[in-house]
Write a structure and sequence with these properties.
alpha+beta; binds 3,4-dihydroxyphenylalanine; 340 residues; 2 domains; BirA Bifunctional Protein, domain 2; 41% helix
């Protein structure tokens, strides 16, 4: 039995040296210490020994067992260390490498300009309202003092859906919608940003573009209030040194009507390519709300007066940022957009 034990010991030690991985070590342990393992089988044979021999033999086997177990333990530690080193080498993170560059999204220049316009008017106590893009002929034209067959309807080339339903050509219909909702409250003091649609397409016109409408209705509103508010707006938007001028014009929903020019932001008024030598640049249409429009909104034109204005957001953005072709705003070329 002693010889057998010696043989198991030597064989196990020899095999231990040749092992290549912790898996192989596990297999060896099963072959030696497992239920049917060589050492376990030897122990089972001890029943055949005499009562005197048994404790002695038991002692020897246990010594060998613990020696071999220790050797296995040491081998396991060795493998674990090796495997960890391999993993560290393979998974090493080089913190000196430059990181992946995630390009951050940001606001479109048109959204930025709309927000800026909103902020300026919110600062003067205006509220922001919205209206539908698909509009009825009534709100887009009739209620704005543009009856059917009125020649001024041709000022805007309309996309009709049916005879009475269309894509709104302007944000002005929100004026009447808002008055209807608020009447008889005073003041009505809103701006209405949004998309509008016209059958137009070139470097300065797009079939879809954005406007911001403004409306102030109250007792005793005068044209000088309009001028003051628009002067303040122009200076906030284009710089403190801007001046404005009102030129007589015509819109069916205002009387009197005026187009508003701002002193050129490029040359300051001396005349340049941008202002075509005039020193002035048109930025919006405006006027005193026509009595008929106040009536359509439910207000009594003998009691209240109001002013209104409407501006094109693309135009404001192009002037503010010196963009020459409106289509650049819709191409979504990231090289263009990321400049703002
Ligand atoms: N709706 C006009 C347009 O699209 C712009 C406009 C002019 C709006 C005068 C107004 C206004 O509110 O008073 O051309």
């Amino acid at each position: 039995m002693k010889e057998q034990l010696q043989k198991i010991k030597e064989e196990t030690q020899e095999q231990l040296v040749k092992l290549a991985s912790s898996e192989e070590l596990q297999e060896l342990k099963i072959r030696v210490f497992g239920k049917k393992g060589t050492l376990t089988s030897l122990q089972k044979q001890m029943g055949a020994l005499s009562a005197e021999e048994r404790p002695l033999m038991g002692q020897i086997i246990n010594d060998v067992r613990s020696q071999l177990e220790k050797a296995c333990e040491a081998k396991l530690k060795e493998f674990e260390k090796q495997e960890l080193e391999i993993r560290l080498r393979e998974e090493r993170i080089d913190i000196t490498l430059p990181g992946y560059c995630l390009s951050r999204g940001h606001q479109h220049p048109l959204s930025k300009v709309i927000e800026e316009i909103e902020d300026i008017f919110i600062g003067m106590g205006f509220s922001i309202v919205e209206g539908p893009e698909i509009e009825t002929d009534y709100y887009n034209f009739e209620a704005l003092n543009l009856p059917k067959d009125h020649p001024a309807r041709d000022m805007q080339d309309t996309f009709f859906i049916t005879e009475d339903i269309l894509l709104r050509t302007q944000t002005s219909p929100v004026q009447v919608r808002t008055m209807e909702k608020l009447v008889p409250q005073l003041p009505v003091k809103i701006i209405a940003p949004g998309k509008v649609f016209r059958n137009d397409d070139d470097a300065t016109h797009s079939p879809m573009f954005h406007q911001v409408e403004g409306l102030l209705v109250d007792k005793g509103v005068r044209m000088s209030d309009l001028k003051g508010i628009l002067l303040y707006f122009s200076r906030q938007m284009f710089g403190e040194s801007r001046e404005i001028r009102l030129r007589p014009s015509f819109f069916p929903f205002t009387e009197p009507s005026a187009e508003v020019d701002v002193s050129c932001m490029l040359c300051g008024g001396t005349g340049c390519r941008l202002c075509k030598g005039t020193g002035w640049i048109e930025i919006l249409g405006s006027g005193m709300v026509h009595p008929r429009v106040l009536e359509m909104g439910g207000y009594d034109p003998k009691e209240v007066t109001g002013f209104a204005f409407g501006m094109g957001v693309e135009r404001i953005a192009m002037l503010k940022y010196g963009i020459e072709d409106m289509r650049l705003l819709y191409d979504n070329d990231i090289r263009f957009l990321s400049q703002f």
